[in-house]
Amino acid sequence: MENKKKRGNTWIHRIIVGVLVVIIIVSCAGILKEYLDGKKTEDNYESLASLVQTTEAVTTPEETEETEPETEETTAYVSPIDFDALLAINPDTVGWIKIPDTNVDYPIVWKEGDNDTYLHTDFEGNSSQAGAIYLDMDSDTDFGGRNNIIYGHHMKNGTMFKDVVKYKDKEYFEAHQYFEIYTPERTIHLKAVSSYYDKAQPIVRKTRFKTRESYNAFIHEMLAPCSYAQIPDVDIDSLYILVTCSYEVDDARTFLFAVEVDEDGNVIESEDPQGGFLESPAAESKQAESGISSEGKAAAENSISSKGKAAESETFVEKTQAEKIPTEKSAESKAD
Question: What is the assigned CATH class of domain 52-62+73-271+320-334?
Fold first, then answer.
């Protein structure tokens, strides 16, 4: 009887050991696959960088008509990135981001009306946990809008936007404040001015603003949570936000905020502080040209009910706050 019991226990022990061995093998296989996929992605992006990066950005004389005075010779921008080669691989290419002394050295893509595709699709269109670095669908593809939001995964192997989370350390922040975004038309020199983690709030994706005052208030609201923030003391035209996953709290993100500077590192002040807003002097001037008097405008406004105004405001101005920051889904637990 005891022998039968011992044999039964032995089989149970063997089954448990077998199950554990299978679990270990499957886990190791998953880890190995994750490593190989990450290494492949890293190698592919490194090869791409070697292929398309040429020299420093330069300007060359443009050919002018013989009738133009020689003293009026103009120059043409030549990007250090071969955008023809990039566009041949992926027509969604809009720029290239490079942060010196970090692993951030990647093409930037953009897809109309779509913030999900490049979460798990790499630059060459392959399925990938690392995805691609991409510009928010509501941001302007020439990086000329009020808010340029750029997303990238926080990868365990140090690639994509993993280095962005290091900006939460003040010393690292100060040592890596200056970086560039290249486009076919220009080099955008940027200076990091704030970084912190927070929950993924829709307000971060706001891209349209009624007035200069509301835009400046937005900038201050975005930058202020950082204890070492360097909030610009002049009116600026554009804010840049790099976004990646963070794990301090549920659904957290690390944000890195930057503004445009000149080649000497000075913040570029807006040449037209009141222009380009939904309620700008230019808009009012255009309305006046159309023949609508101030009295007529006031009468029209008074005809709109309070409820109508609220609905109009929500639709026209706050539209970009309706959708959340893209969720990185499975990448958060497997790849980041």
Answer: mainly beta
